[in-house]
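Quick one, T. Sequence first:
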Amino acid sequence: MPRPRPALSPRAPSPRALPLPPLPALLLAMLSIQGGAAFAKSLFPALGPGGTTALRVTLAAALLLLAFRPNLRALTRADWQAIVPYGVALGLMNLSFYFALQRLPLGLAVTLEFVGPLLLSLFLSRRVTDVGWVLLAAVGIALIAPVGESAGHLDLPGAGLALLAGAFWVAYILAGGAVGRRVPGVTGVVAGMLVAALVALPFGVAQAGSGLLRPDLLLAGLAVALFSSALPYSLEMAALRAIPPRVFGVLMSMEPAIAALSGWLLLHEALSLRQWLALLCVAVASAGISLTARRPEAERAAV
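Structure tokens:
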């Protein structure tokens, strides 16, 4: 999915060197995230989107705790005042995205979610030319929206949930920037994931109940957490040390296409030509504004 990744603090510790160069590492990270999202969708019949989100975020938080062993006791009340909004935004972003994914093909859900950060980039930009990129994205959204019977059916609640996920993504970026400036290393990220787990768990318990404790589903949830959070997070942390943020932003613009391909290969979700054109418009707009607009300091992360 989005899915979105943990915001990186500029003081985060350097991860171990990867055997891959930065660009292949980022490509592998995107493939891992979208493949993980496709696999997560296959768990919806057993857990529902709420249960799947709760399992993924909770297990991802546990993996980060084990991997980094942050000193959470050292966090002050002021630190938590920055971390809690970040974690709440992260939890709600994942919940709304997975509920959108229940109603939409993976490629369309990711494309609509991208609208949020794209509009944030326009707001932070001081260039008139960036309006053109947003207009191109607007063309993409118009192509997704149904116009007449021949355009196909778009699930409007699903589209609304995907756009809501994009809005929470914006909140996550802004709150993550504040956490990254205030809390050293990955401590703020791990604490934020714990808050996100607390946000998601009530939805998961309400929807999946004791199913969250089934050994086979716990193992599947662990795989989703690993491929949607832990592995891409590690790959991106390493790659971001070696490439400029703008290059990172352009490469991330490939995610809607990778999501659509993952949905086609793993979930047999076929998009129409019109939907592929819409996806292309949003991806090109995202790449263009990544090259020209000022962007917030927080980097993206996943559920």
